Amino acid sequence: MRDKYYDEITILLGTGLRISELCGLTDKDIDFENKLINVDHQLLKVSGIGYHIEVPKTKSGVRQIPMSTKVCEAFRRVLQERKRTTPFIVSGYSGFIFLNRDGLPKVAVNYESMFRGLVKKYNKCHEEALPKVTTPHTLRHTFCTNLANAGMNPKALQYIMGHSNITMTLNYYAHATSDSAVAEMERLIA
Fold first, then answer.
1. Which of 64, 68, 153, 179 shows its CA 20 to 30 Å from the CA of 34?
2. 76, 59, 77, 73: which is closest to 165 by C-alpha?
3. Pick the catalytic residue: 57, 70, 120, 155?
4. Buried b / exposed e along 153-167 (16+ C-beta atoms within 10 A)
5. Does residue 59 carry a catalytic annotation?
6. pLDDT at 163 over 50
7. Annotated catalytic residue: which of 41, 45, 106, 140?
8. Catalytic pick from 51, 93, 111, 173?
9. Tell me: the pLDDT tens digits for 31-61?
10. 122 is catalytic
11. Nearest to 111 by CA among 9, 13, 14, 1
12. Is 137 a catalytic residue?
């Protein structure tokens, strides 16, 4: 049996989506035939105001993210296990994929709480504790760093991440280490 958060973590780690982009995904945003996620909005919830949809800050935020087979399978499981609820519409968007117990769309605070719980649970069972700063955004960093370290073209990575400036992609996400520098030198010189 899979952990109840397995698919959501698989999707975050396999796509680099911002948490608000994940929360805003609807049935219509997932193209299983072409294995693409269409990102053109995000779902936010403001205390005292409620749910609202925002468009990405820049035109670079509008993009199509390719899905691996593992990510496609995770989306299929989430959609298959999703409980039927009364339609919930925010600014014309409905069919949200990730729902809480009450059938309402999940938002960033739900995932931040989930991560705190997962870190606490992990730290109970392991000697080497995870840092307290672990958030869903950590998976975005990991996704980008892994692709950068695997040699992905930086401009393609910039597109997938939805960054308007390549500096953001390279400085904040593509972390180099001594080992990666040595491996890269050996690869290029060999």
1. 153
2. 59
3. 57
4. eeeebbebbbbeeee
5. no
6. yes
7. 140
8. 173
9. 999 999 999 999 999 988 999 999 998 899 9
10. no
11. 9
12. yes
175 flagged as catalytic:
no
Domain segments of the chain as ranges: 6-189
Which tokens go with 144?
A: 């980008």
Let me know if 51 is a catalytic residue.
no
93 is known as an active-site residue: no
Q: What's the pLDDT score for residue 145?
A: 87
What does the pLDDT read at residue 22?
97
CB 166 within 8 A of CB 173: no
What's the N-to-C CA distance of the chain in angstroms?
A: 45
- Give the 3-state secondary structure of residue 63: strand
Query: Which of the following is catalytic: 137, 141, 159, 172?
Result: 137
In CATH terms, the fold of domain 6-189 is: hpI Integrase; Chain A (1.10.443)
What DSSP line would sit under 5-22, residue for residue?
Answer: THHHHHHHHHH---HHHH
Q: Which amino acid is at 179?
A: D
Percentage of residues of the chain with pLDDT beyond 90: 55
Question: Which listed residue (18, 41, 45, 106) is catalytic?
Answer: 18
Residue of 135, 99, 100 whose CA lies nearest to 118: 135
Q: Are 78 and 6 in contact (CB under 8 A)?
A: no
Query: pTM for this structure?
Result: 0.86
